[in-house]
Each structure stands twice: as C-alpha cells, then as structure tokens.
C-alpha cells in the first residue's frame, strides 16, 4: 500500500471521531455550503442526481445528500459501516482514491470530495479522474483547507509558517498539497472544469486558544476563509 494512503488510514479509522469532527460548527458549515452547491448544480441534470461522496469516512455527508433527494454512493477505502442490525440504505464502494475510480466514464451527475485533495501526492490525477466519471455538465465540489487564510497571511508577515505546512502537527502533517483559492481554480481549469460557485465557511481571527469566527467576512471575502468550497462543472 502507498505509504501516504497508509498514514491517512491510521489517522482516520475512528468513525466516532470523524463524525464528531464533522458535527462541529466550523465543519458542519463547510459541509452545508458544499452540499448546497452540489445539489443546486446536479439538479440541473436530474431531479434525483446520482452523486458520489468520495472519501466518505462516515455516512454523515451521504445522508445529507440523500435528504436533499440525491442518490448517494459512499466511496472510501476505510469507510465505517454500522453493525449488522443497523439500517444501511446508502451503497458503499471500497476504493483507493489514488487509483482509477471504479465507475464507468460519464456515470455520475455529481461528486463531493471533502478534505481530500490536500492529502494526495498528485491532485491533478485525482481531479482528472473525477472528470472522467462525471457526465457532461456534471458537477464536482471540492472542499479543502485554505493555505492563505487571513490569520495565516498575518502569520507569514511576521515570519511564521501557515498552519497547513506544520510537519509537527498531529493531523495537519498529512496535508501534503495545500491550496489557495487561485491555485485550486487553476487546478480546476487544467483538469477541465469551469468554476460555477465558490464559498467559505468562516474567517477566523485570533489564536488557537481564543479566536473569533466571522460568517459575514467569509461571505464577503471567501478567499480569506478557513475552508475553500469550490464547485466546477465538467466542460467539453
């Protein structure tokens, strides 16, 4: 197994921990923005769009997509399944996202890729593979931590590294390909996507212990926000 994939599996094997992480206001807002963009664009193709939740981990996002009328499919190498007696109505496809995805070309109306691209050695290969399995005008929504948040721009000015490039951090050290808004847009363009939507969850001011999160600033200046939420439609 690829050592990068193995390192990520070791850090994200606890389903309860992942679900708790997604339930925090910071990340639930990111997921809400992403699913809104995805459903809005995917419904231009179908009233019940077929949507893949890549790197699903738990069924949190897939459930949200299903609640909005999408036919969701979970895709993950180490996804967390419920016990035998639990209800399970969302299909699960096991797949390594660093390899070709197990879908035929043009099969999907939409793809959600939440907090994935920063973990991949070659994000361009991944985005190109996403394009292959999307139907013409299918939509891809990517969320990823912002390398150039407002607080990280300030940190850089005073000689400190942005948080996303801290090799000592317990989980940020796994973020090997951090993005800014402009670099993510460029990657979408290179891989055959036309950007149709961009949002961010919060602009955060302050340190680790005490900070203030502003939703208003994130709406006005999304390129300064904590998470980049970018939607692109397959071109050609």
Automatic annotation (TrEMBL):
Gene3D superfamilies linked to this entry: Vaccinia Virus protein VP39
A Pfam family hit: Methyltransf_11
Any one GO biological process: methylation
Keywords per UniProt: Methyltransferase, Transferase
GO molecular function: S-adenosylmethionine-dependent methyltransferase activity
Residues of the Methyltransferase type domain: 53-142
InterPro entries from the UniProt entry: Methyltransf_11 (IPR013216), SAM-dependent_MTases_sf (IPR029063)
Source domain of life: Bacteria
Keyword Methyltransferase: yes
Name listed for the protein in its UniProt record: Methyltransferase type 11
Lineage of the organism: Bacteria, Bacillati, Actinomycetota, Actinomycetes, Frankiales
């Amino acid at each position: 197994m690829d050592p990068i994939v193995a390192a990520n599996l070791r850090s994200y094997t606890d389903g309860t921990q992942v679900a708790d992480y997604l339930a925090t206001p910071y990340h639930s807002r990111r997921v809400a923005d992403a699913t809104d963009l995805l459903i809005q664009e995917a419904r231009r193709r179908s009233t019940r769009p077929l949507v893949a939740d890549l790197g699903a981990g738990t069924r949190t996002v897939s459930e949200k997509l299903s609640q909005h009328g999408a036919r969701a499919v979970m895709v993950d190498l180490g996804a967390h399944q419920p016990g035998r007696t639990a209800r399970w109505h969302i299909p699960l496809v096991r797949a390594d996202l660093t390899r070709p995805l197990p879908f035929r070309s043009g099969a999907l109306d939409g793809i959600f890729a939440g907090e994935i691209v920063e973990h991949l050695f070659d994000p361009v290969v991944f985005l190109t593979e996403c394009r292959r399995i999307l139907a013409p005008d299918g939509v891809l929504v990517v969320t990823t931590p912002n390398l150039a948040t407002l607080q990280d721009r300030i940190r850089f000015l005073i000689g400190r590294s942005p948080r996303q490039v801290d090799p000592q951090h317990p989980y940020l050290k796994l973020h090997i390909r951090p993005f800014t808004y402009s670099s993510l847009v460029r990657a979408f363009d290179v891989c055959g996507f036309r950007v149709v939507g961009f949002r961010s969850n919060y602009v955060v001011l302050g340190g680790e212990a005490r900070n203030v999160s502003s939703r208003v600033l994130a709406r006005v200046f999304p390129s300064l926000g904590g998470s980049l939420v970018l939607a692109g439609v397959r071109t050609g």
